[in-house]
């Protein structure tokens, strides 16, 4: 749902780039959120339906409304999530097309850092959840243990300072425990908790790691495809030399997300 035209329009490209890793984080997030069965949920910035799917499989909600501003993501979500409890609609995270107190809980996965007014987004999440209901979200640890992107931008910035303009580790200081806790508390949420969710990202080869950066969907791929062919080739070879590679060409990287949750006052 980011308000950056052209950044997130291609659902299949996103799946190859970050969707496959979000698909591993989402079930862990849902288990930690523990919303209880039978409730109504809104998934804000639902993307290709990854969090919605995890909720349907593990939390037994009565219904879920997925909202996103990217038609390409919504089309893919509708294709992949056929459960009748789920519905998807186009909308803006800063002005949700839902009534006050309409849901028992609200979630958002990998969206917050892209929104221009993060406090307003949290206020909207709290507005549509009944008193006592849950609000939860997760974001990548861009500046730390999100090594897929950290390796990429560390190498890119050493070659070209312009890369810093795309680096979410620099652009998204909210993606840390302290700022997340303050943001949720500032929205009036109570009992705020923040925790790390860690997974391992295994790539069969360097090509398996590199190819998603050519899709143009997301900050790093957008930067990568803005380069001239010689500059992109230099970045590629510098990355190849830097990444920890096993004897059969496999690459194993650490991936961390920060998850946060709290309850609506009242």
Automatic annotation (TrEMBL):
UniProt-listed CDD domains: AdoMet_MTases
Keyword Methyltransferase: yes
Entry's Gene Ontology molecular function annotations: S-adenosylmethionine-dependent methyltransferase activity
Keyword Transferase belongs to the record: yes
A GO biological process held by the record: methylation
Gene3D superfamilies on file: Vaccinia Virus protein VP39
Pfam families referenced in this protein's UniProt entry, alphabetically: Methyltransf_11 (PF08241)
InterPro entries assigned to the protein according to its UniProt record, in alphabetical order: Methyltransf_11, SAM-dependent_MTases_sf
Key words, A-Z: Methyltransferase, Transferase
Occurrences of domain Methyltransferase type (ranges): 42-135
The protein, known as: SAM-dependent methyltransferase
Phylogenetic classification of the source organism: Bacteria, Pseudomonadati, Pseudomonadota, Alphaproteobacteria, Hyphomicrobiales
